[in-house]
Amino acid sequence: MQFRRYNIIVASMIPALVTLPSSPWLVLPPGIHQASLDDVATAFATNAWRQELFDGLVDASGRLRAAGCQTVYLDGSYVSGKQKPGDFDACWDPSGVDPGRLDPLFLQFANGRAAQKAAFKGEFFPSSMMCADVGQTFLDFFQLDRFTGEQKGIISIPLSADPLLSRMVQP
Fold this sequence. Notes:
Elements (H helix, E strand, L loop, with lengths): L30 E4 L2 H8 L3 H19 L4 E5 L12 E5 L17 H11 L1 E5 L3 E2 L4 E2 H4 L11 E6 L4 H5 L4
Parallel strand pairs: 1-7, 3-4
Antiparallel strand pairs: 2-3, 2-7, 5-6
Helix pairs in contact: 1-2
């Protein structure tokens, strides 16, 4: 008689959300948490609206990757416990990006980033761009809870080898 044992371990790269006193919903613990788009879908595309936002994130991520972008950082109420976030906030690492291949939408910030929100259901900033309101780069600004000013986490999505983007046909 032979016995076989299998160890099936499913590990998410995204940590459990935590309570931040005085914040209206659960947030990621402080730090930059690396995850794939599939991980993001599993953790946050949990209803029809969140899936619609996720689809916009995937579209934008594919366009950024085509221009040479290596990393997108995901923030906002989308990566929180809020049931119906209004949108998502993201910033992208401009290192290695070919300006000639970059979709001009990623540099349109007029009217509250209306063009970006219409195209992607979220908004994007270069990670090194200064957020004038607070005098920090968007990468640093995104790691602060807007209600408390306390540190919170964000998601880092490496684009070059992301399995979901690799399965898609790129233009």
